[in-house]
Write a structure and sequence with these properties.
Layout (H helix, E strand, L loop, with lengths): L1 H10 L9 E6 L4 E7 L4 E8 L2 E12 L2 E6 L7 E8 L7 E5 L11 E6 L4 E5 L15 E8 L4 E2 L3 E2 L7 E7 L9 E8 L2 E6 L2 E9 L1
Parallel strand pairs: 7-13
Antiparallel strand pairs: 1-2, 1-16, 2-3, 3-4, 4-5, 5-14, 6-13, 8-9, 8-10, 10-11, 10-12, 14-15, 15-16
Length: about 210
């Protein structure tokens, strides 16, 4: 039992066997990313890829041939809050989304409508919101809001167009813009660290100790 406990402790302690250092993402066009592992088990991370920007830090541990990253403080998912629901005769439906301060979002928000027949209609907000063309008799039962660039989708909001068809929501970002790492693995391959994320294989090459 004492030997097993010692092995488990070694498997979950910061690595001091040469993996510390500064790494840079290689081989991904239009992306810039860096990772720093320090000897005290701390990491710093940054990523810019298209409209996606992430910056964060936290703790790392070694688990066999893997490095595990956990963001600190703990990552909290963003949420969308319903702000207002009014009735208008000008359009079948309008969905608007604002930032925390009430100003329009600076990037498109995905909108997924669920129809009574079970089908879905997808679109995204623009400067005026999202205004789909709905045929006569089409009934929308719920909608979800998402930020595809952050791989985030809200829970469904119920919709009753007979009562309100001009809907406004507000984004509460929480930890948005920080990496949502909770035991995020990095495979140790020679001097490279390989992150498997979102179906992609991201190779970080060591630049310095």
């Amino acid at each position: 039992m004492r030997r097993l406990a010692a092995l488990l402790l070694l498997a979950a302690t910061p690595a001091f066997a040469g993996v510390e250092g500064v790494y840079r993402l290689e081989g991904v066009r239009e992306a810039a990313s860096g990772l720093e592992l320090t000897a005290d088990g701390h990491f710093r991370y940054g990523l810019t890829y298209g409209a996606l920007d992430e910056v964060g830090e936290g703790r790392w541990v070694r688990d066999g041939n893997r490095i595990l990253l956990t963001t600190e403080p703990a990552w909290t998912a963003p949420v969308f809050e319903a702000v207002s629901a009014e009735r208008s005769a000008e359009f079948p439906l309008r969905v608007q989304v604002t930032g925390p301060d009430g100003s329009p979002m600076s990037w498109p928000v995905d909108v997924i409508l669920t129809l009574a027949e079970g089908h879905e209609v997808q679109g995204h907000t623009q400067s005026y919101g999202y205004m789909p063309s709905l045929g006569e008799g089409i009934r929308v039962t719920s909608l979800r809001l998402g930020l595809g660039v952050f791989d985030f989708l809200s829970a469904p909001f119920p919709v009753d167009l007979a009562r309100a068809n001009d809907l406004t929501f507000r984004l509460v970002p929480n930890s948005l813009g920080q990496p949502p790492f909770k035991g995020q693995p990095l495979l140790i391959e020679g001097d490279d660290l390989v992150m498997l994320r979102g179906g992609d294989r991201l190779t970080y090459r060591k630049q310095s100790e």
